[in-house]
Amino acid sequence: MSTQILNGENSGRHIVDGPLTVAVSNEAAPGLIRNAIDQRIVKVRPMSTPIDQLSRCAGARPARSMTVEYYSVDPKKTQSKVEADVAAGIGKRRSDGIYTHNIMTEDDNLFEPSETLMLPTVMVHKTARSAGEPLVVYVTARNADTGLEVIAVNADIAETGKPAIPAIAKGSPVVRMGRAASELDVQTPQFQALPTKTDNNCQIFKMQVEESTFHKIANKEVGWTFSDQEEAAIIDMRLGMEKNFLFGAKSKIIDPNKHEEIYLTGGIWQQAGREIDVTLDDFTEKTLIDIAQAAFTGNCGSKRKILLCGSELMSIISKIDCQRIRRASDSTVIWGLEFSQIVTNFGNIFVVHSEIFDQCGHACDAMVIDPDYLTKYVHIPFHTEKLDLRRSGTRNTSAVVITEASCVVLRYPDAHLRVNGVKVAD
User: Can you tell me the distance from the alpha carbon of 101 to that of 89, in angstroms, rounded to the nearest whole number?
Assistant: First the structure.
């Protein structure tokens, strides 16, 4: 009788009329064995490959093809700048007691009728004892030629008894605030957020190990035991993957000898949406706060981020005498990685040295990664395939080929930050 797979009464599946094999397990519970293997892989020198480690611990998404297409959308911009000077005065009379002004910004499309805007550098109600408060306006219309038509909400009262605004200089920031509807309003200007499609290639990573004891893997992958040779092969494979995941160049080429397509994955270093330059010769606690500000503000990311550092920058950070920020006295172990923790008012930074940064010429650089928006796509899950080289007449040995086709992507690119360390002396 053939093996049958039956559904449980409420959940789970049952195997009858046959043994539980790898093939049956993959059919009844796809991903079960792969997950178990990943749990073993992450225990092999995790500190050497933090990106691969994070992506495996977070869980991978299946990919149906070698080219992965994914969508991301960053939050709508919150501010723009005034494009042309606006004269002081009462503006244009629209009705009794209602006067409007026209403000042109660098991107009028950011703003909609019924929104309130704040100009934080344009102060009203200034007195001898008070610096005043920022001007707030209400948007009544948007015109392609004249810009935004606005009503000053908290304008000063001129000698004539009419509301008047101070002069608004070109380059003054304009900040989006909330919408303000009337009692009878049912609808507002529509808001849509369309994600941007991006793609990356899965790269086929392979490693061949020839050792007779490896035949056990084919029958019982969950109970995978590692010998010294096997462990060395796995870590070498992961180190290579880590370099591609970080600094790889996305491409598709033709091998002139094999006459076959080769897919190369793109690294996350170039995927990051923002970057900051820091001077290593004058790197202080204030510089670290500037990095935290750039990493945590304006991107709606999480309040817990990871800082991967090259050795030069890591050394400098370790020597900083902190007074405005706090260093956790004990290291923290998360995702199988041991971090030192820096607590700032913007959020918590988990710092770890990456030897890959040193090997790839980025010893002075770092990268801030939001782990909530780091995603791994897998086209071919990590698996082993037994080769009988003895029967094929190639070599008097058995061999196992380890394979995975995968890539790592950054969703919401602005939640991640490149830190470029610059030495003035150079």
Answer: 9
Cβ pair 100, 146 in contact under 8 A = no
Q: Which domains does the chain have, with CATH numbers?
A: 31-73+195-426 (3.90.1690), 79-179 (2.40.10.170)
The single-letter DSSP state of residue 55 is H
Model pLDDT for residues 115-161, shown as the tens digit of each residue = 889 999 999 988 877 788 899 999 998 888 889 999 998 888 877 77
Regarding pTM above 0.85, the answer is no
- Measured CA distances, 331 to 302, 308, 422 (Å): 21, 15, 28
CA distance 59 to 70: 16
Q: Give which of 317, 418, 416 is closest to 369, Cα–Cα.
A: 416
pLDDT in tens, 359-388: 888 999 999 999 988 999 998 888 777 777
- Give 62-88 as a DSSP string: E-SSSEEEEEE-PPPP-EEEB-S-B--
